[in-house]
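lol ok so funny story. i was supposed to be doing the assay writeup but got distracted and ended up predicting the structure for this chain instead. priorities right. anyway since i did it might as well share w the group, maybe its usefull for someone
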Amino acid sequence: METVFESQGIKFVKVSLELVPVYLEMVNDIDGVARFIGDRLEPYTQEEERAYIKGKIDSGAYIYSMLDKKTGEFIGNTEFFNIKGYETEWGIVIRRSMQGKGYGTEALTRALEYGFDELGFKRIYLTVFEDNSRAIHVYKKCGFTEYRRTDKDIFMEVYNADLIREDSPDKDTV
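and the output, tada:
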């Protein structure tokens, strides 16, 4: 798998059909993962997941699998999507066994640097469920501010100048 960029402990590689089994395990973990990434609460089939990943690969999407640099273990996926000019939406999903270990903060910090410095985005935004307090804490710590809210979702954004750096002393975990 080709490494696209990396951080201190994470390799960001292009998504791959060979990782479909671990992707499927992750997105089909309804209570620990799926409830935070969408409204679908029934399991995906292997065929559905393969088609989704193949579509991402074929379209050249900015979606990356995260692997622990020391162990090679799959952490999760992150993606820049809904790209319009110099703006993009960002998302992350981390498998349950890798949550609470600081990967979310590290991945977000490095993804922001990559998005701003290497891909040229000026604004990165995201949507998070209002009951995902751990993620909201990390997003705020990394410079995101809320710009809109519904009864279910919080919409947050960060601009290039708001970026904090990886050596920030405040490193809570997602």
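The first strand starts at residue 3 and ends at 6. The mean pLDDT is 90.
back to the writeup now i swear
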